[in-house]
Specification:
Trna Endonuclease, Chain: A, domain 1, alpha+beta
Amino acid sequence: MTSPQKIKGSAYEREVVKALTEAGIYAERAYGAGRPDDVGDISGIPNWILECKNHAKFALSQWLAEAERERQNAKAKFGAVIIKKRGKSAKESYVLLDFETFVKILKELNAKSPANSSGN
């Protein structure tokens, strides 16, 4: 029998996939949570894994470490944790990144910036 926590988590993952899809981003649920080779909760986004959390109490360091393990398992460039805000839709969730990931994203965006491609 599935636990209430698992049901709640699965429902939130579906909400996140729906919100991303509505925003024009292809995403799908990844199955196999808890396996040694777990690759996150949401897949289908090139270079990314997403770990979804729907908990009353936050465990940010633990969740970032989990996302990092899953990012490595998936051989993805980036990983993030999507955290449910109490009483809010998935579109109003928090997105948690570690500083290193944030810097990698900024560098990648900066390298693609038109201002940088012109040599200025």
